[in-house]
Amino acid sequence: MQISFLIVTKNRPEDLALTLNKLKLLIDLSIHEVLVFIDGCSKTEAIISDFNWVNWTNSRESLSASPARATLYKKAKGHIFIGLDDDAHPLSSDFILTVETTFNNNAHLGIIAFQEVRGLFTSDQSALQHSKDLESYFTSDFVGCGFAIKKEVYQATNGFPIWIDIYGGEEPAVALEVLDLGYTILYQPSIKVNHRVDVIQRKLQGRNYFRFEHQLKNTLRYYLVYYPKPVRKVVKTLWHNFKKYALKDWTYFKAFIKVFFSTLFKLPSILKYRQPVKAETINNKLNLKPLNYSA
């Protein structure tokens, strides 16, 4: 098996079906596989029989994105793992060849981050026209909606962390472990995926208190697990979020307090996963160009 496509899905059967139909046009099932993890959502079960070429894992209980990925990736057999969101699909017919060639040209490359083209388009050609012509560069992160990682590199890490839940943290955790192993992460914008999100609707939604709470919680855990000296980063993060959000909005304030005390209460269990990376890795990460998250 050369390539494994891996998708975690929850309550979006129509989006998932579209993604799977797009993938079917690109893959050769004799050398490629598609694995899907249904994360505790019964309505997705209705489409399983429509895609009998997919390797399904159906969890009755919702695990959340990162633990679900951790479970799914253990089942993959390909030499290269390609991670996609259930509402994201490749935009070019040479997608697979370009991923393989990029890895073959760089023995120290661990992860390829794709260009994320956000939006709802009438066709893939239209999405490509909205993408950007950018130069590739080495970076410190990747986006879960579209990336590739060598199997041997992923297995050398601890995998997607089970101590992180939705909204931020799982990709930076894997990325930091990959960098600590001495591998590089390449942002390759010529490899494009359409992340089919309604950009206008997201902007109109305004404040997202749920996202704020989970991102803050996961960021604190990230520092506590990986940083050799995490106290300064934790204090700085708390102070920044208190000034920018909690001090100005009562709902943000309640979410901030909830995260603060839950982190203190769960500190012993969080520290069970502590595995500080080398100080050199942190310095190298800071010197890398940040990821261009979207077109």
Q: Could you name the key traits of this structure?
A:
295 residues; alpha/beta; 9 strands; single chain; 12 helices; Spore Coat Polysaccharide Biosynthesis Protein SpsA, Chain A; 9-stranded mixed sheet; globular; 2 domains
| Main beta sheet | 9 strands, mixed
Number of separate strands? 9
Order of helices and strands: EHEEHEEHEHEEHHEHHHHHH
CATH architectural type of the largest domain: Alpha-Beta Complex
Number of structural units classed as domains: 2
What integer is the average pLDDT? 95
- The structure class reads alpha/beta
Query: Low-confidence parts lasting 5 or more residues at pLDDT below 50?
Result: none
What general form does the structure show? globular
Cα radius of gyration in angstroms: 19 Å
What is the share of helical residues?
Answer: 40-55%
CATH homologous superfamily descriptor of the largest domain: Spore Coat Polysaccharide Biosynthesis Protein SpsA, Chain A
GO molecular function: transferase activity
InterPro entries: Nucleotide-diphossugar_trans
Keywords: Transferase
Protein name: Putative transferase
